[in-house]
Recover the amino acids of this structure.
Protein backbone atom coordinates (compact mmCIF):
# COMPACT_ATOMS: atom_id res chain seq x y z
CA UNK A 1 0.00 0.00 0.00
CA UNK A 2 1.36 3.42 -0.95
CA UNK A 3 1.57 6.19 1.60
CA UNK A 4 -1.15 8.20 -0.12
CA UNK A 5 -3.62 5.31 -0.24
CA UNK A 6 -2.93 4.54 3.43
CA UNK A 7 -3.58 8.16 4.37
CA UNK A 8 -6.80 8.09 2.37
CA UNK A 9 -7.95 4.93 4.13
CA UNK A 10 -7.08 6.30 7.54
CA UNK A 11 -8.86 9.58 6.91
CA UNK A 12 -11.89 7.67 5.74
CA UNK A 13 -11.97 5.72 8.98
CA UNK A 14 -11.77 8.95 10.92
CA UNK A 15 -14.62 10.62 9.08
CA UNK A 16 -17.05 11.82 11.74
CA UNK A 17 -20.56 10.53 11.67
CA UNK A 18 -22.94 13.10 10.25
CA UNK A 19 -26.53 13.15 11.39
CA UNK A 20 -29.62 15.33 11.47
CA UNK A 21 -31.12 16.85 14.58
CA UNK A 22 -34.69 17.56 13.51
CA UNK A 23 -36.23 20.07 15.92
CA UNK A 24 -39.97 20.40 15.72
CA UNK A 25 -42.16 22.57 17.93
CA UNK A 26 -44.41 25.60 18.06
CA UNK A 27 -43.14 29.03 17.07
CA UNK A 28 -41.37 30.43 20.13
CA UNK A 29 -40.76 27.02 21.70
CA UNK A 30 -36.99 27.55 21.48
CA UNK A 31 -35.80 25.69 18.37
CA UNK A 32 -33.51 28.44 17.02
CA UNK A 33 -32.24 29.33 20.48
CA UNK A 34 -31.17 25.73 21.10
CA UNK A 35 -29.86 25.23 17.54
CA UNK A 36 -27.45 28.16 17.93
CA UNK A 37 -26.17 26.94 21.30
CA UNK A 38 -25.66 23.40 19.99
CA UNK A 39 -23.78 24.64 16.95
CA UNK A 40 -21.42 26.72 19.06
CA UNK A 41 -20.74 23.84 21.45
CA UNK A 42 -20.21 21.12 18.85
CA UNK A 43 -17.89 23.28 16.76
CA UNK A 44 -15.82 24.39 19.74
CA UNK A 45 -15.78 21.27 21.88
CA UNK A 46 -15.95 18.49 19.30
CA UNK A 47 -14.46 20.24 16.27
CA UNK A 48 -17.46 19.18 14.19
CA UNK A 49 -18.92 20.85 11.11
CA UNK A 50 -22.42 22.03 11.90
CA UNK A 51 -25.02 23.64 9.67
CA UNK A 52 -28.26 25.10 10.94
CA UNK A 53 -31.16 24.76 8.53
CA UNK A 54 -33.50 27.31 10.02
CA UNK A 55 -37.00 27.38 8.59
CA UNK A 56 -37.05 31.16 8.26
CA UNK A 57 -33.67 31.33 6.52
CA UNK A 58 -34.41 28.52 4.07
CA UNK A 59 -37.71 30.21 3.26
CA UNK A 60 -35.85 33.36 2.18
CA UNK A 61 -33.64 31.35 -0.16
CA UNK A 62 -34.73 27.95 -1.38
CA UNK A 63 -38.43 28.21 -0.52
CA UNK A 64 -39.14 31.79 -1.58
CA UNK A 65 -41.95 30.57 -3.79
CA UNK A 66 -43.80 28.80 -0.96
CA UNK A 67 -46.51 29.98 1.41
CA UNK A 68 -48.01 28.51 4.56
CA UNK A 69 -50.65 26.13 3.22
CA UNK A 70 -50.37 22.48 4.23
CA UNK A 71 -49.00 21.58 0.78
CA UNK A 72 -46.42 24.37 0.86
CA UNK A 73 -45.29 23.59 4.40
CA UNK A 74 -44.84 19.97 3.36
CA UNK A 75 -42.88 20.96 0.26
CA UNK A 76 -40.73 23.29 2.41
CA UNK A 77 -40.02 20.42 4.82
CA UNK A 78 -39.16 18.16 1.86
CA UNK A 79 -36.57 20.63 0.57
CA UNK A 80 -35.07 21.05 4.03
CA UNK A 81 -34.95 17.23 4.38
CA UNK A 82 -33.04 16.95 1.14
CA UNK A 83 -30.46 19.50 2.26
CA UNK A 84 -30.11 17.77 5.62
CA UNK A 85 -29.64 14.45 3.86
CA UNK A 86 -26.78 15.56 1.62
CA UNK A 87 -25.02 17.34 4.48
CA UNK A 88 -25.45 14.50 6.97
CA UNK A 89 -24.08 11.88 4.62
CA UNK A 90 -20.90 13.97 4.34
CA UNK A 91 -20.09 14.11 8.02
CA UNK A 92 -21.92 17.33 8.83
CA UNK A 93 -24.28 17.69 11.77
CA UNK A 94 -27.41 19.30 10.32
CA UNK A 95 -29.61 21.03 12.83
CA UNK A 96 -33.07 21.59 11.42
CA UNK A 97 -35.10 24.23 13.27
CA UNK A 98 -38.48 24.00 11.63
CA UNK A 99 -42.00 24.09 13.13
CA UNK A 100 -42.78 21.13 10.82
CA UNK A 101 -46.33 20.81 12.15
CA UNK A 102 -47.29 17.75 10.12
CA UNK A 103 -46.42 14.26 11.24
CA UNK A 104 -46.28 13.08 7.62
CA UNK A 105 -43.47 15.57 6.79
CA UNK A 106 -41.38 14.44 9.74
CA UNK A 107 -41.90 10.79 8.86
CA UNK A 108 -40.85 11.44 5.27
CA UNK A 109 -37.76 13.32 6.47
CA UNK A 110 -36.74 10.34 8.60
CA UNK A 111 -37.23 8.02 5.65
CA UNK A 112 -35.23 10.20 3.26
CA UNK A 113 -32.34 10.94 5.64
CA UNK A 114 -32.24 7.41 7.09
CA UNK A 115 -33.37 6.36 10.55
CA UNK A 116 -29.76 5.81 11.72
CA UNK A 117 -28.90 9.45 10.94
CA UNK A 118 -32.08 11.09 12.15
CA UNK A 119 -32.99 12.26 15.64
CA UNK A 120 -36.41 13.79 16.12
CA UNK A 121 -36.36 16.32 18.94
CA UNK A 122 -39.65 17.71 20.17
CA UNK A 123 -38.93 21.18 21.53
CA UNK A 124 -41.93 21.37 23.77
CA UNK A 125 -43.62 24.41 25.28
CA UNK A 126 -47.31 25.08 25.73
CA UNK A 127 -49.08 27.46 23.39
CA UNK A 128 -49.58 29.75 26.40
CA UNK A 129 -45.87 29.93 27.11
CA UNK A 130 -45.01 30.49 23.45
CA UNK A 131 -47.59 33.22 23.22
CA UNK A 132 -46.20 34.92 26.31
CA UNK A 133 -42.68 34.76 24.84
CA UNK A 134 -43.79 35.79 21.34
CA UNK A 135 -40.22 36.74 20.29
CA UNK A 136 -41.31 37.77 16.79
CA UNK A 137 -44.67 39.28 17.70
CA UNK A 138 -46.37 36.73 15.47
CA UNK A 139 -48.95 35.52 18.00
CA UNK A 140 -50.10 39.09 18.65
CA UNK A 141 -50.52 39.59 14.91
CA UNK A 142 -52.39 36.29 14.59
CA UNK A 143 -54.79 37.25 17.42
CA UNK A 144 -55.50 40.51 15.60
CA UNK A 145 -56.14 38.60 12.40
CA UNK A 146 -53.15 40.12 10.62
CA UNK A 147 -51.73 36.61 10.14
CA UNK A 148 -54.12 33.83 9.22
CA UNK A 149 -51.95 30.70 9.07
CA UNK A 150 -50.32 30.79 12.50
CA UNK A 151 -49.52 27.32 13.81
CA UNK A 152 -51.32 26.79 17.11
CA UNK A 153 -53.86 29.56 16.45
CA UNK A 154 -55.44 28.93 13.06
CA UNK A 155 -53.26 26.08 11.80
CA UNK A 156 -52.78 22.68 13.47
CA UNK A 157 -49.67 21.41 15.20
CA UNK A 158 -49.52 17.63 15.25
CA UNK A 159 -47.54 16.74 18.35
CA UNK A 160 -44.90 14.04 17.85
CA UNK A 161 -46.14 10.76 19.30
CA UNK A 162 -42.77 9.00 19.50
CA UNK A 163 -39.97 11.58 19.28
CA UNK A 164 -36.43 10.40 20.09
CA UNK A 165 -35.95 13.20 22.60
CA UNK A 166 -38.39 15.65 24.24
CA UNK A 167 -37.05 18.91 25.62
CA UNK A 168 -39.52 20.81 27.76
CA UNK A 169 -38.32 24.41 27.56
CA UNK A 170 -40.72 25.52 30.29
CA UNK A 171 -38.93 23.18 32.65
CA UNK A 172 -35.29 23.44 31.53
CA UNK A 173 -33.07 26.43 30.85
CA UNK A 174 -31.34 26.59 27.46
CA UNK A 175 -28.07 25.44 29.08
CA UNK A 176 -29.76 22.46 30.74
CA UNK A 177 -31.49 21.62 27.46
CA UNK A 178 -28.15 21.58 25.61
CA UNK A 179 -26.72 19.15 28.20
CA UNK A 180 -29.74 16.86 27.93
CA UNK A 181 -29.55 16.83 24.14
CA UNK A 182 -25.81 16.16 24.14
CA UNK A 183 -26.27 13.23 26.54
CA UNK A 184 -28.97 11.89 24.22
CA UNK A 185 -26.71 12.05 21.14
CA UNK A 186 -23.83 10.47 23.06
CA UNK A 187 -26.08 7.62 24.16
CA UNK A 188 -26.94 7.05 20.50
CA UNK A 189 -23.21 7.05 19.67
CA UNK A 190 -23.62 10.04 17.34
CA UNK A 191 -21.25 12.16 19.41
CA UNK A 192 -18.46 13.00 19.99
N1 LIG B 1 -35.75 27.28 28.30
C1 LIG B 1 -35.77 27.97 27.14
N2 LIG B 1 -35.26 27.40 26.01
C2 LIG B 1 -35.29 28.08 24.84
N3 LIG B 1 -35.78 29.34 24.72
C3 LIG B 1 -36.30 29.93 25.79
C4 LIG B 1 -36.32 29.27 27.04
N4 LIG B 1 -36.88 30.11 27.93
C5 LIG B 1 -37.19 31.23 27.28
N5 LIG B 1 -36.83 31.17 26.00
C6 LIG B 1 -37.06 32.22 25.01
O1 LIG B 1 -38.05 31.79 24.12
C7 LIG B 1 -37.81 32.31 22.83
C8 LIG B 1 -37.68 31.18 21.84
O2 LIG B 1 -37.54 31.73 20.54
P1 LIG B 1 -36.93 30.95 19.32
O3 LIG B 1 -36.73 31.95 18.26
O4 LIG B 1 -35.77 30.13 19.74
O5 LIG B 1 -38.14 29.99 18.96
P2 LIG B 1 -38.36 29.10 17.67
O6 LIG B 1 -38.86 27.79 18.16
O7 LIG B 1 -37.15 29.10 16.82
O8 LIG B 1 -39.56 29.86 16.92
P3 LIG B 1 -39.86 30.00 15.36
O9 LIG B 1 -40.50 28.70 14.93
O10 LIG B 1 -40.83 31.11 15.26
O11 LIG B 1 -38.60 30.28 14.63
C9 LIG B 1 -36.53 33.14 22.90
O12 LIG B 1 -36.87 34.48 23.11
C10 LIG B 1 -35.84 32.55 24.14
O13 LIG B 1 -35.00 33.47 24.76
MG1 LIG C 1 -36.74 29.80 14.89
Amino acid sequence: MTLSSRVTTESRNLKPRGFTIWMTGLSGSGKSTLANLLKEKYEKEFGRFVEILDGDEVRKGLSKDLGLSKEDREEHARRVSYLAKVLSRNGVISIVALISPYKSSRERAKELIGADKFVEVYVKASLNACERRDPKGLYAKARKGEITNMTGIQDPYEEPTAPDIVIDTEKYTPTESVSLLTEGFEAKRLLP
Remarks:
- Residues 70-88 form the longest helix (19 residues).
- The longest strand covers residues 118-124.
- The helical segments are 3-14, 31-46, 55-60, 70-88, 103-113, 127-133, 138-143, 174-187.
